[in-house]
Amino acid sequence: MSRRWDPSLWASKKPFGIGEQRPNNYAEIWNALKENRDELGFAWRILKEGVCDGCALGTTGMRDWTLDEIHLCNVRL
Question: Cα(58)–Cα(66) distance, rounded to whole angstroms?
Fold first, then answer.
């Protein structure tokens, strides 16, 4: 086995994903609020009581069973 770097094994030519776009959860929440301002009660109920089926964290409402913090769910937004 060679100890040299083999670019064919790299996932990307960019180290650590430099220059890649990352999601901004707070901006997504703000945009969702703006888009749904006429149905805020319904949107709040979905976020507060809904179940997220888009991730593997096991969420119920705004909490998940993995982290102690609030679950900022872009799928339900």
Answer: 7
